[in-house]
Model the fold of this input.
Amino acid sequence: MEKAIVEICGEKAEVTKGTTLAELSKEYADRVKYDIILAKVDGRLRELYHVIDHDCSIEFITTGDKDGIKTYIRGMIFVLVKSVYDVIRKENIERFVVEFSLKGGYYCEYKGSIKLTKEVLYRIEDRMREIVDADMPFVKKTVDTDEAIKLFYEHGMYDKSRLFKYRRCSKTNIYMLGNFEDYYYGYMPVSTGILRHFKLHLFDEGLILQMPEQNNPEILTEYEAPFKFYETLKESNLWGRAVNVDTVGALNDVISSGGIGDLILVQEALQEKKIAQIAGMIAADREKKFVMIAGPSSSGKTTFSHRLSIQLMTYGLHPRPIAVDNYFVNREDTPLDEEGNYNFEILEAMDVELFNRDMTALLRGERVEIPNFNFKTGHREYKGDFMQLGKDDILVIEGIHCLNDRFSYSLPKESKFKIYISALTQLNVDEHNRIPTTDGRLIRRIVRDFYSRGTKAKDTIKMWPSVRKGENENIFPFQHEADVMFNSALIYELAVLKQYVEPMLFGIDKECPEYTEAKRLLKFLDYFIGVSDKDIPKNSMLREFIGGSCFDVR
Done:
């Protein structure tokens, strides 16, 4: 038998050509911490049914890796969808949609003639465990795109039929699990046996599929749904349905029919209405003197702060901005991370004592000189920027630690109004493929960093994991402390950002480690019809990233 030389786990080995990655992975299963679910062959992601037919380097991807846990989730959703159809039956299902992720789980909305009770939920979960125990293979097959459109229409998956109408390629890959066919954006496990860890919970108008998280992919923790976060996501989804745009295919329909201008105006008006409501809540309680705004990277915090300030003015308030960055400790006092680099993300990088001393003095009505942080020298400077609060003055403070009470420990709770802002994508690709919120924020950041800082796309992608790590440690744990949450995502934005980001992603060389992520994003953006930015208002959240903002915030 002809052999191939493979480099794997730091050593070279001879492998019979025709061996699958799944077969090879069994020999190396005891060398990795978690279950192997994918592999990289010469730096490119491959599903485990892939055959080794040449000399190559192989890196196994486990459920403890980013691409691995995404594949686990995708396979788990497929098992859930099949089980729902097996138990409730197609003729009784009006709608079963994977709506959005909720802290270790995915909320799925169900509508149909059979009520979703605990007993039905247990039957669905039992069916899922049967499928997992049977170790059923996920079978990929390629069909004509026209055939896929017809196939999914017959299955009652109308969002998929609508999506494929705009595909430019003549062929489409679909997956089969037994005799059940579906389409998924991304890679699949080789079979169901790996998908052992999950649980279903009844929730609102559907259920939550709980799954393990990347940092501990074999453990399910006690599940507690984040209700405030859920309400924000639900409100955004209702906005999408109000304008009949809740999937990429529906958005493409609007664009192709010439209705994008009206959609932009309606979406922007809905956001402005929400900002006005938040301003009204603040104005109704005159004890509030500190508006504390926090959110993850590329959420549009700066534009939001400006727009909220304008709305506060309509209530007779005088908003005064405070830049939290001016309260960094001097550079020599900045903590270091595990790699010896300055860690500007943690609370200890801030002069918490000085911030509290100044804010408390302002609250007492005293005149305070606000520092300016010189990022070139790494030191605070005082340049005569004095501030004193009047009766109708209110401070608008934006920074990553603003929801953490340790940052503003000396300020009375009743004086603070906390706002969590994030770009929570309200679109689905289709019924069973959710657009991750992090993808929308990453695309925003790639565009903004390129135009405002000259940072190449590959460098933004490279540093994104460390950005996400900082968010997980310093922002997300405190989001439940917010008095209100604001979603800055716009239904139409990815169709606009597509025009900006595609050339940047195409510029990433195939040999770069970031190429895999760039290719994934390009494939994802191919679902969208591109849109010009000419109709986007100057005060739009999107202007913070593409430029042309009346607030000069990019």
About this structure: The chain has three domains: 3-62, 68-225, 235-376+386-546.
